[in-house]
């Protein structure tokens, strides 16, 4: 075991003593607080006789991203020395940016799908809210069909919760938050919706060396809907900005606290077109394309007990194009009271047609740079179902759930939407 620092040699051979190394295996250990990379740790303080040489070198600590080697493989006797280096090889080495590159983008994507696919205003434009029978004066009876509501604009409040299981990416997450929005029909076939919100994301890492990350994520966006029925088209956009507070452990034994503060942001645009089949029950096939851009700041981690072990991360930007196909079913149910009920559900398939992987350059002070990459499956299936209760012409409540299913992660989102029409 090397000494407390590189200036102290742990093996002392006195003037009248002899040390026979006899091909012994050296097991390297050191106090993480005194570790320095690329610095030779000489082993023997020799004032007598050293015979033979070391027979091998083994890592005596659990962190595989810190490697140890002979300083001079040809000098394994009295002048033998070892040297430590940072060589990231594990998923945990990428953990400090996984939350920014994968965690925030997965949660933002799951939330955007919840906000965009069945947004309150797009539901109004495509099939109408709070529909009511028309009384025909000439016949004195109710028409079999329905008309759009008299109140074509509204505001809404949407509490949100998302659970992410991403063991293949090394973390799980819980996300809590809300969105506020409003909009409606501003022309016979044209509608606009604006919204903004906040999410608190709590990540729990499942890889050794990484502990947790807290995120404050602020988002906003718009929906533009053009619906000359039975056709419709939607242009949807959402953007977010997130603050990240990472905590993990580094050192030879994962015994030193490591922290990092950094920011990330992202944008996503969806262009969807579809066709409405049916009246009381509508079947709505649709296709489209999406583009997303994600950016995570470069940053240094902080290791207060040994700044020599801090790490630099330089994440790559991520540009992802996807093609989308989906099928929705929306049905209205007649009730005897004043509350109308609408049920909806659908499935959607998103296929990335460009690189969907996360990657970053990482290095420690005075160490080589390494490129780390983690692939994310290109195909995501989305299932969603819910009900809308319209209590009167002005007030409605939606309860719904959604699942984003990817080979590398699963995200489950629940939402409630309280809408007031005017």
From TrEMBL:
GO terms for cellular component: outer membrane. Gene3D superfamilies: Autotransporter beta-domain (2.40.128.130). It comes from the Bacteria. Residues 148-422 form the Autotransporter domain. SUPFAM superfamilies: Autotransporter. Coiled coil: none annotated. This is Autotransporter domain-containing protein. It holds the Pfam family Autotransporter.
